[in-house]
Structures are given as C-alpha cells and as structure tokens.
Amino acid sequence: MSESFGQKIRSILDKPLSKKGFFFLLLSPILYLLSYIVSIIAENRRNNGYLLLENINSNINFKIICVGNILIGGTGKSPVVQKIALIYLEMGWNVAIASRGVGNNIKEFYCCSEVECNLSMLSDENREHYEILKFSRKKSSNAFYILQNKKRIESLNYLYDHINKNNWNINKTIVILDDGLQHFACPRHINLCLWSPHLLLESPLFTIPVGPYREGYGKKNFAFLLDHFNYRFWSRTKTQNNNEFKNRINNSLQTFSISPGEKDIIINYKTLFWTIKIAANKVYLEKNISENEVFSIFQTSKNPLLLSGIAHPKQFLNDLSFLLNTKKYNFIFLNDHSALNAFVYEKINKSDYIIMTLKDFFRWYNDPRFYLGIKNKNILICSVDIQFLNYNLETISITHILS
Description:
- This protein is an alpha/beta fold.
- The chain is about 40% helix and about 25% strand.
- Strands 1, 2, 3, 4, 5, 6, 7, 8, 9, 10, 11, 12, 13 and 14 form a 14-stranded mixed sheet that branches.
- Strand 9 and strand 10 form a beta hairpin.
- Helix 4 (about 125-135) packs across helix 13 (about 360-365).
- The protein is globular and about 55 Å long.
- The protein starts with a strand and ends with a helix.
C-alpha cells in the first residue's frame, strides 16, 4: 500500500486547523502570510473581471459556458463538462470543450470528431472527454471538438473559423470552458462553480498553503465567492444520500448567511465500469459492464491492485467499497496527474487485476512499460455519470438553466 507525498499534503490541506498538527503550528505565521499573498493576487485578478465577447470578435455568437471551481482540484469537473456536452450533442448542437490541458509538455492541439487526428497529443482529461463523447454520441449531423490551448481565446477564434469554413450552424454551437474560472482572458456567458459542502464545513477558509483553495481569505471573502458565480454546483452524492447531502449544503450556506435557492444544483452520480479494446496500437472504449460482472471477475483475482493518480482517490476507493471490502488488495495513490515510477511498474507486474479511472488509463497507456505490464491482465476502467437536481431534489433540465 502506498500514498504519495503530494496526496499526504493534500489531505493535510483539507483538514480543519485544529487537526493539522504541530508542524503546521510551527510554520503557521509564514503559511498564513503566503496564503494572504495568494488571495490578494487572486482577488485583484477577479476584480478586473472577464474579457467581454464583443471585445474580441463581434461575430462570435455561440454560447460559452464555464465550468470550474476555486479548489485545487478534485470536485468532479470532468463528469459535469462531459454531461453538458453530451446533452447538447444529443440535441443536435455542435459542441466544443476548451481546456488548457494538464501534464508535461502540453501542446496546442485542436481535434474535431469529423477529422482523423493524433489523439496522443491530447492530455489525459481531454482524451477522456474525447472517448466519452465519441462512444456516447448518437447523431452524426453535428460535430464535437476538443480544443487544447493554454490561451482559450485562441481556441474560440479557431472554432469560429472552422465552423464557418464547413458552413455549420454557428447559432447551434456551444463552448464549454473546462476549469476556466481563473482564466480571465476568455469571455463567457455563464459561470458554473463546483463546491464541496464537506470542505466548506471542515477545511480552513484560506487559499493554499493553509487551505485547499485557489481564492479566498476568511469568511467574508468566501461569502462573496459563494454568491459571485451564476450557479453553485454541489459535488457530489448518490441518490440514497440526497437528503443528508442537502442538509450539509444548507449548513454550509447558513455559515455564510446565504439562503439556498435556484442557484444551487446538486450533482447525483453513479460509477460506470468499462472494458477497453486495444487493437493496432489504438485504444477504444469497448462497452459498459455491470457491477455484477465486475464483482464476478474480481472474485477470481489473486493479487488485485487499485492504482490512482487523481486529486481525491479516497472518494474513488469509497465508490468501490462493494468490491474492495470482499478481499485483500493493494493500492497506490500517486499525485494528481502523476507519471509512473519503478515502484509502480513492479506492483503492476505482480498484479493480475488492475483497477483505475479512465483518466488515469489515458495518461499512462502510451508508456511502453505500462502497456507491457497490463497486457493480458484483467483491467477495470471506471468513470462517472451524473444527473442534475435542484435544491428540492427534483431532476432538472440543464439546458433550461443555461439558456
């Protein structure tokens, strides 16, 4: 069993101040000063506001939605981005996901579903977006794009030119800015901010390195941020826990003297299980499999391994409790978006059943040592599907609130 240094640091950031330990107490004057400096920089940038659409190109008239958070990571942005994209695709819209990409040596790269492209150029999360949209798309009369560029404004200009070149309906085109709340140089019509009621109630209300946030310093600033964005997306819970989750949201908002309302959207989720097909050096999502099928295969394994390089692997571990509580297993929790190392290769080689997220798989599958390690072994790939509820726990149409 192994947990990376980065994961341990993240868990310390999430802890209440009273539980951070002696080492934090010793360094607290310096850490609070650094946190204050980070928050001042973030506040100044936010006060300047986002660039307006008419200031870059008065002819760009597609809808731009931003999905992000003020946490360091791990609130479940990817499933929200994918779900919104899939809903609009099924309605016959052209859909683009614009992201900077995450990882080493990210290159500017634009990918359209109607054109053969080198998918190895995509970052892990962008490759996940592409595969989910490709697998789930039911219509061929509309296109989807993955736009990877640190400067999302350039992605918008590329999209505008490409759609006009192909004579597609630009009025039925939506752009989803993935993790763009802190990217002020790109315009948008609506900002969706993902929040965790658990962290709001338990973690310190400060930016790093005191708390797990990118913005905010103290209760007053967090009250402003909670009310600042168009919608608060609360991530995330399962159906059987809806009422408990709603109570935690209410308790979170009451702490800041905010009343819940139409701005509050609850994210229900379920875990999806996939099989992967590898052929001619290409990888495809093959099919979904049920919990019963997963359980049956897992019970035949002798040395299972849970391998993760995501921000909150303990939530992932909890989602798999129906499986993992039945027998002994090993786990390795790497840093978010981390590469593999010699220790991990050794564990992979000794395992006969490997469980990982879809994002993790696409981060590592081009690594020859990883590929050789998983070859001819049972691999379980997991992703998340979601639905949106209002504060009264009623299913809502996301297109209605985004219109």
